[in-house]
Design brief:
By secondary structure, this protein is mainly β. The protein has a domain of about 100 residues: Elongation Factor Tu (Ef-tu), domain 3. Helices cover about 10% and strands about 35% of the residues. It contains 4 helices and 12 strands. The strands form 2 sheets. A 6-stranded antiparallel β-barrel has the order 1-2-5-4-3-6. It has a 6-stranded antiparallel β-sheet with strand order 10-9-12-7-8-11. It is globular and about 50 Å long. About 30% of the residues are buried.
Length: about 250
């Protein structure tokens, strides 16, 4: 059973407003959810890699063409998280349409300047592996945590260490007290999303944290390509942001 919070001395001094999660928790396979403004949710459980096969600049935007095993199940206007960034499928191409030796169907997503400035998508090259996850189904388990697909900022891997078969990765992001007041921070044993992967935080400081990656996650996500100096996408826990906001009301 979850612990009772009402007796916590920091919480029982004043009434905390409730959080309406109706829109926050909505996610389904229908690309046109009713009356919720196109809200999509993810869980941080990566389905597989998608491989970048073409990159095209369109003024301030970039169109990425990718391939993966479930292209045939995608539809135009569907939301898919790429390295934790929620992007809309804008085009689906048949096998052979890209040219070269690729004989698999592909799909296209577009990233605008704001997304490119805030995430690591602008660093992608043809051949790179991208973590992909389709939006959640409400009849399934939430195996990770609530992930919006709205990347907050990037971080850099500053250390890797063996953990007896697993690997500790340490990440550093810019220290910003004003952003921390808004919930942009990590807590020990809390959740954080790194390149779209839902992970448990270890040893957090004001601007660093560690995560422990088991061999399965290492092999089935692009953590296998992360080295010291690699830039990754971060999304901090949305529940922490709500609580931080409530403290300011």
């Amino acid at each position: 059973m979850p612990p009772k919070l009402g007796g916590h001395r920091g919480l029982n001094k004043r009434r905390i407003p409730s959080i309406n999660l109706k829109g926050l928790m909505y996610a389904c396979s229908d690309p046109h959810p009713p009356n919720l403004g196109g809200v999509y949710m993810f869980s941080g459980i990566i389905e597989e890699f998608a491989t970048v096969v073409a990159i095209k600049k369109d003024r301030e935007n970039i169109d990425f063409t990718l391939t993966c095993s479930f292209v045939g199940e995608l539809s135009i206007d569907q939301s898919v998280a790429h390295n934790g960034v929620c992007l809309t499928v804008v085009k689906i191409l048949p096998a052979g349409a890209v040219g070269g030796d690729l004989q698999s169907p592909t799909y296209v997503v577009t990233a605008m300047k704001e997304t490119l400035d805030r995430t690591n998508l602008g660093l992608l090259k043809v051949g790179d592996k991208v973590n992909v996850e389709r939006s959640m189904l409400m009849n399934g388990r939430l195996d990770g945590h609530i992930v919006q697909g709205h990347v907050d900022e990037t971080a850099k891997c500053i250390a890797m260490a063996d953990a007896g078969g697993s690997t500790y990765f340490t990440f550093e992001y810019p220290e910003n007290r004003e952003m921390a007041k808004k919930g942009y921070f990590t807590v020990d044993k809390g959740s954080v999303t790194v390149n779209g992967v839902s992970l448990t935080v270890c040893n957090p400081t004001s601007n660093t944290f560690q995560v422990a990656i088991i061999p399965y996650t290492f092999e089935h996500t692009n953590f296998c390509d992360i080295k010291v100096g690699t830039v990754v996408n971060l999304e901090f826990d949305i529940l922490g942001k709500y609580i931080a906001r409530l403290q300011q009301l």
